[in-house]
Design brief:
By secondary structure, this protein is an alpha/beta fold. The protein has helices spanning about 25-40, 55-70, 80-90, 90-95, 140-155, 185-190, 195-210, 220-230, 240-250, 285-300, 310-315, 315-330, 335-360, 370-385, 395-400, and strands spanning about 5-10, 10-15, 20, 45-50, 50-55, 75-80, 95-100, 100-105, 110-115, 120, 125-130, 165, 170-175, 180, 255-260, 265-270, 275, 285.
């Protein structure tokens, strides 16, 4: 069997290796690769390892020498078994090695979750796949898997991805979620479960907010919020811009976890257990940041177009508003509207900043609806700022 074949694509030369590379044939394989490189005078070297079944230390040394001689050297389409060899020996840290990913289609699949960076689809009874918006999402996937493992160890129930797949032009993480139902599905189809959903949703949220990590283990949400505010310079009055920055600067570092995208499509009921998915937005910070983003998901983004909420969240605006108000009361253990309004006034400052920024970045502020939204949110932001001197609240002081 011929072990080496190649083809040239512009300035790149693709080598295909078939079978095994070990001490028995390593010298011949290396000599043939070098001969072809010399004859073609190409220096952008790619090894297509789709049919590489095994590589020994002798074979690995070939790749080391190629990497040393050619900066653009990389290995693609590596099977899981061979990739494990590269990973265990540290080669994935010193050169580009890309796995061969199983191809999955989500055509006709039910969307069961949605987050800031992707959508979650059920691909069969046992499994779901999160498809990332970013077509270059491998680093994001790696980060989310690591964060999810960390959260699980800390006692936050979540699903861990067991496979990475190719979905269209992007990538996806596959999770085992047997017969899972999102809280959005439950709220939409089982109206009598509203209070149960509120209790379980709030209980899990408190578990998340009660969990601490060492400094530096997770991103600080304040840094993201500072970027959102910086984007708005010139779009909002100067006085409002200055006060926004001061309010954020006055929020001290808090090492308690916040999810960052905690809504009912990301909370799942799986075999008697409630768990959270979509962990790529996990960070640390004061709960005011969490409530700002929760408000946006449940009400904010659809404040001027209620009918758009159902396609996004899976529940209608009226149900979402009822659920949201019940969650606030349950979390803060009070029905005092003045106290709850005070909390939301603080959170809404961040809510409006994020929504205004998003519409402008999407260039939707030039549309009829977008113009109404941005103008309305800007007015509400300034009203909140006029009546707020601190974004902080003490949860214990909120309770009845």
């Amino acid at each position: 069997m011929k072990e080496i074949s190649y083809e040239i694509d512009n300035e790149r030369i693709y080598f295909r290796i078939v079978g095994k590379v070990d001490s028995n044939n390593a010298k011949e394989v290396e000599d043939e690769i070098k001969t072809i490189i010399d004859e073609t005078s190409k220096n952008n070297i790619i090894i297509d390892a789709k049919k590489l079944e095994y590589i020994s230390s002798a074979g690995l040394r070939i790749f080391l020498r190629l990497k040393k001689d050619y900066d653009n050297f990389k290995v693609i389409n590596v099977s899981s078994d061979v990739y494990e060899i590269f990973n265990m020996t540290g080669f994935t840290q010193i050169m580009t090695i890309e796995k061969a990913y199983r191809v999955v289609s989500v055509d006709g699949c039910e969307e069961i979750g949605r987050g800031a960076n992707g959508k979650v689809y059920r691909i069969d009874q046992d499994n779901v796949v999160k498809v990332y918006n970013n077509p270059d999402a491998l680093d994001e996937i790696k980060n989310e898997r690591e964060v999810a493992k960390k959260a699980l160890v800390l006692g936050i129930p979540t699903a861990i991805s067991y496979d990475v797949v190719k979905v269209g032009e992007s990538y996806g993480s596959v999770f085992e979620l047997l017969n899972a139902k999102s809280f959005s599905q439950i709220l939409d189809s089982e109206k009598d479960k509203m209070d149960w959903c509120v209790d379980e949703y709030t209980k899990l949220l408190k578990v998340i907010h009660g969990t601490q990590v060492a400094e530096g283990e997770l991103p600080d949400i304040r840094e993201s919020v500072k970027d959102w505010i910086a984007f708005l310079e010139g779009y909002i009055p100067k006085e409002a811009f200055i006060k926004l920055n001061k309010l954020i600067e006055d929020v001290p570092y808090d090492n308690h976890i916040i999810h960052g995208d905690y809504h009912t499509k990301n909370v799942e009921y799986v075999d008697g257990e409630v768990m959270i998915i979509d962990m790529d937005t996990l960070s640390v910070g004061h709960p005011v940041f969490e409530f700002a983003m929760m408000y946006n998901a449940f009400l904010g983004y659809n404040e001027y177009n209620h009918s758009a909420l159902k396609p996004f969240l899976g529940i209608d605006y009226e149900t979402s508003e009822i659920f949201w108000n019940k969650v606030l009361a349950a979390y803060f253990e009070t029905t005092d509207s003045n106290k709850l309004n005070e909390v939301m006034q603080k959170a809404n400052i961040i809510s409006y900043v994020r929504m205004i920024r998003k519409r402008i970045r999407q260039n939707l502020h030039t549309t009829d609806l977008g113009r109404v939204e941005v103008e309305g949110w800007t007015k509400k932001l300034i009203d909140c700022l006029d009546n707020t001197e601190s974004l902080l609240f003490d949860i214990d002081l909120i309770k009845d």
